[in-house]
Task: structure prediction
Amino acid sequence: MKTKILSTTKSDIAKAASIIREGGLVAFPTETVYGLGADALNADAVASVYAAKGRPSDNPMIVHIARASDMGRLTPMLSADIVALIENFWPGPLTMVVKKKPEVPDRTTGGLDTVAVRMPDSRAALDLITMADTPIAAPSANISGSPSPTRAKDVIADMDGRIDAIIEGEDCRVGIESTVVDMTGDVPTILRPGIITAENLEAALGKEVKYDEALLESGKFFALDPEDGAADIDDFKPKSPGMKYKHYAPKAQMTIIEGQRDKVKSEIERVKMLNERLGLKVGVILFEEKAFIEAAHDFFARLRDLDNEGVDLILAGALSDTDGVGFAVMNRMLKSAGYNIAKV
Result:
């Protein structure tokens, strides 16, 4: 397949929108990561996304809309809490899981009776959705399991020849995927942490917001393969991307060093020197202690760069998970490392 590289001009986005309407696949920038888009209401087009990514078919997709009124095409009703979150956080990096209408294909939702929806805060993304005149299902535009792409060059590396077009925009300003909150129960529940924290949501709603238990049980479903026939993973139906399968993994082996800051720095240097003496190439990811926003922006790009440098081992300093954004970045970091942690 010949992949077209398009710009963010209105004329090029119109070409991309035509591809979406015809059932094709287009990668596009958002404020979080690049998405791989298809017509969310076209089951065959969505199936092509799964095929292009090598994505398990029970991993639900997030549906992107350009206007809050488009929620009416996807869900039968909006609660007061959903409206409050729309007013406070859209457009922006917040995804809400809501009850779906029958018109939303099961293939888009991983067979669930819910649909995950967000309105991206990206001019190119909003123009694409508006011109396509359909909600767009869009997981991250990478090979499934590899680090999410935050730069056009990362998308091209993974998707060139696999999809119809790539809109080459600016680097994504947030750098990790959206917060996903399940709004179908009595208590709003975060299924995937992001830059919008539980505290942010509680302030907007005036009520408790909790984390899904799977987020607090490190590695509960990590690296389980559906081919293993394990009953627990077969029975587990994720409501959000990133809850079930291995995610964000670099090609290199990765270890997280956790502990007091000075000890972490010393241990990273010690392990680095030891492995370099053995002839291995070692990369280091160590953010400043409270640079949570910077870490969110840079983490996936750093993984990609180290892979491109051909490192054999990545040593990463843990972030504090008592901060909401730090917790979100650590969620990605832990999965990238396969929960391989050394405490000092």
About this structure: The chain has twelve helices and 15 strands. The chain has two domains: 4-235, 253-343.
